[in-house]
Amino acid sequence: MDISKFKHSIKRRVRTYEVDYQGIVHNSNYLRYFEDGRIEYRRNLNSTLTSSGFFTDGTKIVVVHNSIDYFSPSYLDEELEIFTRISWIKNSSFCFENIIIVRDKLICNGKGILVNINYDDIPENLPELAIKQIKEFEGDNLEIRQ
Amino acid sequence: MDISKFKHSIKRRVRTYEVDYQGIVHNSNYLRYFEDGRIEYRRNLNSTLTSSGFFTDGTKIVVVHNSIDYFSPSYLDEELEIFTRISWIKNSSFCFENIIIVRDKLICNGKGILVNINYDDIPENLPELAIKQIKEFEGDNLEIRQ
Amino acid sequence: MDISKFKHSIKRRVRTYEVDYQGIVHNSNYLRYFEDGRIEYRRNLNSTLTSSGFFTDGTKIVVVHNSIDYFSPSYLDEELEIFTRISWIKNSSFCFENIIIVRDKLICNGKGILVNINYDDIPENLPELAIKQIKEFEGDNLEIRQ
Amino acid sequence: MDISKFKHSIKRRVRTYEVDYQGIVHNSNYLRYFEDGRIEYRRNLNSTLTSSGFFTDGTKIVVVHNSIDYFSPSYLDEELEIFTRISWIKNSSFCFENIIIVRDKLICNGKGILVNINYDDIPENLPELAIKQIKEFEGDNLEIRQ
User: Fold this and answer.
1) What are the pLDDT digits (tens) for D64-93?
2) In this structure, is residue D124 part of a structural domain?
3) Do residue A69 and residue D73 have CB atoms under 8 angstroms apart?
4) Is B97:B131 a contact under the CB 8 Å cutoff?
5) Domains held by chain B: number
6) The complex's ipTM?
7) Residues of B in contact with A51 (CB under 8 A)
8) Which chains pack against C, by 3+ Cβ pairs within 8 A?
9) Residue C63 lies inside a defined structural domain of this protein
10) Looking at D14-144, which runs of residues are DSSP E strands?
């Protein structure tokens, strides 16, 4: 993944309960960090998650795929920088990519494919407004899939 | 707490992601283990938790207090024995006590006060059936508070 | 607890994986939030946690007691304000108090008793520097126990 | 993935704190369930995890890749069946595959690539005994990579 394509990042410190018996962040927690980054990415586009499970832009999201490659461990109290972008959108689905670094060291990267669903849990086209905002934010880095 | 008053226990192994940077189970996880024990205690009285948040005996429970004393750490892959009893009941509330041991070593003990609520989140008297089952199970060890 | 005695607080948002089947933050997570607050409180006194398990001021801490009272639930994506103070110190032990609020609503409060230990896991008097810094920060609100 | 190739499974109930704001198991927790299955798989081959981070067969494992596809959500208190197999081994690395079902419903499947490391965190060939045990257990389903 090419970090120069990422326009959004957050910082977040590794907490005591996220480090495991090996003295490193447990591998499952990076999916949580990715999700933290994805929610802040969307907040930055003015869409926030409500307790109904819907975002304020009308989307409701389920994760259908996650993959992650681990390069270096991260440790207690380190400040992670979590980069997030949307790499492609297609009707009802889209793909987040994430990179996590600590200072200049690559910790891991990964991607998640998400699907927009309606009240009946049926896939539904992404709202026009959401597509427009993502296009404007990502610009030429966004792939539109048919 | 007097372990001879406890008539219910479960066993549960310490998992990799529950051990923290100090190489011991993180202090917050014992509240989770207590809750595991409490839910199995209730299953043993034929009441199971449904995804609506209600148990099948009609109760819905919120926690209003937890306290816990830690005596010895527990470690990766150890098999915990989690003891659970109800020590008192009172109109809409009741008290769980828990002890966790590993082999003969006391790890921690604690108690939680829980309140039964209705659909509108208002405290509601415990159902007669639930009271009857708890009384039968706990016998003379149960205190009835007014 | 009297919030006017608290001179330190942090803000922290409720994350998706911290909300449970009842749609509210799981009761165990507040102990994690307390700990987040306590570590930032100490960072504010120039002592940070290293991956050896020791803080940079030479202390190593184990938790021997936690208690918590829950007043109102908190929800997804809410911004918690976590207040932390040290209410008393005594030879090798000391007591943290915490209050969590969301806007003007009291969510929970609690306290934890911690013990300073050495390399052999034996209780050891708190370092003079740590005591001095805590006294200066807390002022008259700090109780010195014998 | 072909479930007929899996010779090992464990059962594990979904806990209250593993269900998120959407009322379903949080996507990150399946990596934890996979790991629970993998550790029990190895216990079944007489290798257990010690608090040093080493298994008793002399291996120490780091995860370098995880991927997971989600097909159906799982819910509070459901009993998951977690299937585990090793699909290939190669010098210092090997691949776990996992499938999770609830009754007859496919919840998710995924794979993880792990690397055996030594005291200095350098990749090291898998011990002969470990290879022998995996070959005997998996039989013709195991691919040996060069």
Assistant:
1) 999 999 999 999 999 999 999 999 999 999
2) yes
3) no
4) no
5) 1
6) 0.95
7) none
8) A, B, D
9) yes
10) 61-70, 79-90, 93-102, 105-116, 143-144
